[in-house]
Amino acid sequence: MRIVFATGNANKVREIKAILADLNMEVLSMKEAGVYAEAEENGATFAENAVIKAKDIATKVSDVIVMADDSGLVVDALNGEPGIYSARYLGEDTSYSIKNANIIERLEGIPVEGRSARFVCAIAAVLPDGRVLSTEGTIEGYIGYEERGNGGFGYDPIFMVPEYGCSTAELSAEAKNAISHRGKALNAMKILLQDALEK
Fold it and tell me: Distance between CA atoms of 138 and 129, rounded to whole angstroms?
C-alpha cells in the first residue's frame, strides 16, 4: 500500500516521510505521484480543509491511501490569526520573513504572558474504500521578539517552545518531529491507519 500526501511543500514532505518511516509504506508527494490539483480550501477549520484536500486528490488516484494536512499558527492576541489562512497570510507569495516580522510588529509592547500561540495540524486520510480518518495535533508556545534559528520553515523562527527555551527553528529535526503539531497528528494517524487496515 502506498500513501500519496496532498502537498507540494518540500519541507513538509521531508518531515512527513521521516515521521511515517516506520509504517513501511512508500510515501509520495503529489509531484512524485504525478498528480496535480489545487482544491479550494473553503472549510471553516483546519480539519475541514484537510478533508477537502484529501478527498479532492482521492478522485484522481486509485488503490492508494491519500493523506492531506492543513496546519497553521494561531496567535491568541491576534484573535486567532493567521489561523487557517497561515499559508496565504499577507498574500500567497509573501515571504515568511515578512509574515513573521508583521506578527512580531503587531505584538509590540505585549509581554510574554500575552503572546501565547499554538501550531495546529489536522490530518485527513482517505482509504481506497472511501473511509475517511481524521486526527489533530497541537503544540503550545508563544511568539518571540525576533526570528531565531535556521531550521524548520514557515513560522518556526518566531514560535518559542517554553520547555526548550528556544524556537522550533532552533530544534533538531528529530526533536521537532517528536513534539510538533504535525508529529502528534501523524503519529495519531498511524495508529488509526494500522487499525483500519486490519479490519
Answer: 29
Of 95, 181, 104, 90, the C-alpha closest to 147 is 104
Active site residue 70: yes
Q: Please indicate, yes or no, whether the overall pTM of this predicted structure exceeds 0.85.
A: yes
- The CA distances from residue 72 to 4, 31, 153, in Å, are 21, 22, 12
Q: How far apart are CA 123 and CA 189, in angstroms?
A: 7
Residue closest to 187 by CA, chosen among 139, 151, 143: 139
Identify residue 181 by its one-letter amino acid code: H
pLDDT, tens only, 36-92:
878 888 999 999 999 999 999 999 999 999 999 999 999 999 999 999 999 999 998
Total domain count for the chain? 1
Identified catalytic residue from 22, 56, 63, 70: 70
- For residue 82, the model assigns a pLDDT of 98
Range of the domain at 73: 2-198
Confidence of residue 114 (pLDDT cuts 50, 70, 90): very high
Q: Virtual CA dihedral for 14, 16, 19, 21, nearest 10 degrees?
A: -80
In this structure, what CATH number is given to the domain that contains residue 89? 3.90.950.10
Q: Work out the angle between the directed axes of helices 10-19 and 181-198 (0-180°, nearest 10).
A: 50
